[in-house]
Model the fold of this input.
Amino acid sequence: MKLVLLAAIAGCGLFAADGEALFNGKDLSGWKMVGPGRFVVENGMLKTEGGMGLLYFTGRKVGDATLRVVFKTTGARDNSGVFIRLPEEPKDPWYGVHNGYEVQIDAGGDEWHSTGALYSLSKVSAKNQRPAGEWNTMDIQIRGQRTVVLLNGAKVNEFVGNQAVPERKMWFEPVRGPRPDEGYIGLQNHDGRSVVYFKEITVLK
Done:
């Protein structure tokens, strides 16, 4: 029996029947880091190290698609995030916070800062992250100005760009305002104590 694998390379993404894999499991091809922190590839996974940083995919912008991110934490307070809708390629690690949306990864946060929240803008309706050491699947649906977040198969957040949001109180909270329908995507390295692994970043149609 013959097994025929149909795949095409566009930029640094691998196209297959289930979507476009942005991380090849081998190296950081197609990705760029800004900030003092870093990501390393360890046993086919991306691993956060060091201080604050933003690793972003340079190949193209993502919009009207589902971004699937498979991750696991190593401790109860590990902090990270997935950036979406970045209008330009970031020049510093805070660009994603203030110009896109950060889909939070933090099992210990409150409803505005827990895994699946749009950091300080849209709270989660439920907490559904698995314990440290177990893999989680986050599906981020980007459709025009609507963002829907599913965590391990359960819907935990839905946000529309023009809906009311809490008042900004601290400098590190996102600057309020509209984000584009599509944009660059990235991963956050939050701090030197948090160790988060990512084994899949895929754009599903």
User: Anything to note?
Assistant: Residues 25-204 form a domain with the Jelly Rolls fold (CATH 2.60.120.560). The chain has a mean pLDDT of 92.
